[in-house]
């Protein structure tokens, strides 16, 4: 391997985590910005509606519930389905990793696939034994 190829390989190994970190931070900032804009537009719209009601002498409408109770709050009924999906994904992903490592390397290396399998089994146990909530009517 010549010096240029070695330098390129080292540079690529350095750029991958940097791009991952910068990309992750950029996505988080984009989400925060759009969420702030959405809430500020909702507040502005509600303010205009309330001011118009005051001008016309109508009863003032209440503030929208989304300002106080965000819609991204976790629904307790959805927790079990998410845990089931996550559990199946981890178990099947761990089996795939173990199989790939067993074929390409050896059985000792394939044991690394047991970590996601254990996480998936824990999620599936939660689905089976976790608290149940009745659906409100």
From TrEMBL:
It holds the Pfam family DUF6249. Coiled coil: none annotated. It comes from the Bacteria. Residues 40-128 form the DUF6249 domain. The chain crosses the membrane at residues 12-32, 83-103, 109-127. Keywords: Membrane, Transmembrane, Transmembrane helix. This is DUF6249 domain-containing protein.
């Amino acid at each position: 391997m010549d010096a240029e190829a070695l330098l390129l390989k080292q540079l690529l190994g350095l750029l991958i985590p940097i791009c991952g970190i910068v990309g992750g931070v950029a996505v988080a900032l984009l989400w925060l910005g759009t969420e702030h804009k959405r809430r500020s537009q909702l507040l502005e719209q509600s303010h205009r509606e309330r001011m118009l009601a005051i001008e016309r002498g109508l009863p003032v409408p209440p503030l929208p519930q989304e300002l106080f109770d965000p819609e991204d709050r976790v629904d307790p009924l959805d927790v079990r389905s998410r845990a089931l999906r996550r559990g199946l994904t981890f178990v099947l992903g761990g089996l795939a990793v173990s199989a790939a490592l067993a074929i390409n390397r050896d059985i000792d290396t394939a044991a690394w696939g047991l970590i996601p399998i254990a996480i998936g089994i824990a999620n599936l146990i939660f689905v089976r034994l976790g608290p149940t909530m009745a659906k409100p009517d």
